[in-house]
Amino acid sequence: MEGDKGDTRATSASTSAARISLDEVRHVARLARLDLTDGEIETLQGELSALLDHVDKVRLLDTADVPPTAHPLPLRNVLRDDAPRPGLERALVLAAAPAVEGDLFLVPSILGEAP
Amino acid sequence: MSPRVGGTGGAPKDVPELVLDRGVRAIAAAVRSGEVTALSVVEEALRRVGQQDDDLHCFNLLTPDAAREAASKVDGAVARGSDPGPLAGVPVALKDNLCTKGVATTCSSKILAGWQPPYDATVVTRLREAGAIAVGKTNLDEFAMGSSTENSAFGATHNPWDLTRVPGGSSGGTSAAVAAGLVATGLGSDTGGSIRQPASLCGVVGIKPTYGLVSRYGLIAFASSLDQIGTFAINVGDAAATLEVIAGHDAADSTSLDRPPPSLLEGLESGVEGLRVGLIGDFLGDVARSCSRAADDAGEALAKAGAKVEQVSIPEMLLGLPAYYIIAPAEASSNLARYDGVRYGLRVDGPDVETMNARTRAEGFGPEVRRRIMIGTYALSAGYYDAYYGQALKARTLVIRAFEAAYERFDVLLSPTTPSAAFKLGAKTANPIEMYLSDLCTIPSNLSGHPAVSVPFALDHEGLPVGVQVLAPALGEALMLRVAATIEAAAPPEARGPAPFTSLGTEGEVRRA
Q1: Which of B374, B386, B389 to mutate to test the interface with A (most CBs of A within 10 A)?
Q2: In chain A, where are the structural domains located?
Q3: pTM of the full structure
Q4: How far is B390 from B379, CA to CA, in rounded Å?
Q5: Mutation site for A-interface testing, chosen from B190, B365, B394, B399 by largest number of A Cβ within 10 Å
Q6: In this structure, are B147 and B62 located in the same domain?
Q7: What would the pLDDT profile of B214-255 be if each residue is shown by its tens digit?
Q8: Which of A60, B135, B169, B466 has the most neighbouring CB atoms within 10 Å?
């Protein structure tokens, strides 16, 4: 079977296919809220592994004294006056929703049955 | 469809030049002076769209009634003697990731099919107030993720220079519409090259401004620290004129620069005497000969015009692509988390909300979007955050520092825009990474937030357009566009749009006019 989480090179013919395990792909799909089929998971394993190979030089960079840059502008706490302003037109917002009850977005159950 | 002979005029040789082909500034002048009505210009644009868009598929949606109404308003203002705006009567195309109130905005994704935003993007409002006439929403790679417009959920756009080829992406629809002469100008967005690359592949000008120069309010976010809205036109001056209208601080976008925008048209024709130009050599190994030669030739043209042109090596440029393909998907995974079937867009039902989210997203997102969400989520997940995302942000610092060092020695930099001219539809869809390599030359300036522009300069051995890229330091648009205008003046006219008209013969072969 494919390697466990963290075991990257043991089992496959090419290093590409082994960079990320099927379990990891499933885990990431859960985090990303993507309901993928087994076939899609397998394809993604190959694609993500290839991409991870491609970006590996970034992972391996010596960046001991280099600070990270998350954003090109040196922005901090851009604030506006604490004064009320009109928001979006509620009717338009609700009209775009898949399901509505009164003024509320309607969704299937959030919490499971009580134990 | 009748063929028409192309070249810089765009109109058939035996018919007087149509106002639509005069370009943004000349159209506005003609409308403002009363020489022509805005309505007549818009009708010509709509006629061309009707004639060509079945073959090109530039548009996801046309808004002819609203366009005619807006044109009539402009004509009314002119008749009354009030100011109709600096872009009066100019037909414009809007990339379909820009929110247009009450008008479907899809990002070329199933997950937003039919969604009508409850507000206009700031750039849309500014164009309207300037008197420009939006003709419709253009096709893109889904959520702006791609370099060919083939990732659109609604079908690819075709390159007007050769219908069997891609227009580039992700702003392929706008680029093709401008290249085909359907509209005078258009808006796109550029996160890793999505304006400049399609501009290069379609023989038109595409500008990515300094990060923060143009408000992103109403631009559906892909990667918030990289996205910028920019402009397309046939020539540099017209692209600059449109950019001037949309640029400037917006309180609704906290990342927009809170200072007066630079004048973009002033001094455009002042030339390049004494300017220091650095020709970036680091992409040579990965770029087709026609593209690197175009950059060399553009450098020579600048030298002839009095600039001091030197080769420069900036090896950190090559860190750009791998860093980008961690940072952009990471930011995208966060930005696209909102598409959950709850408040807007597609919903695929499920027994509980989490299942509903997961089924909606799996069905609503195409393969490239899912791929990027997955790699982004992985790069941000516990155990991998520092190794990938953390490192990528440090690589970004190295790229920025390298640019800053280069701009100590040079006023502007020059490089190819793309590794190749337009490729055939389907040529790069089998291997995502091959597609990603299209952004090699454009990505670094998204990471740095610096402005860059693609200027059409040559045709390759197959007669396909090749652009060159001018890069400048932050808020260096005026200088950058001056250099671009000089390059443009030296370019052979046949290398620049509008595209010669092409149409598929009855047997499906491509026939050139």
Answers
A1: B374
A2: 15-59
A3: 0.93
A4: 9
A5: B394
A6: yes
A7: 999 999 999 999 999 999 999 999 999 999 999 999 999 999
A8: B169
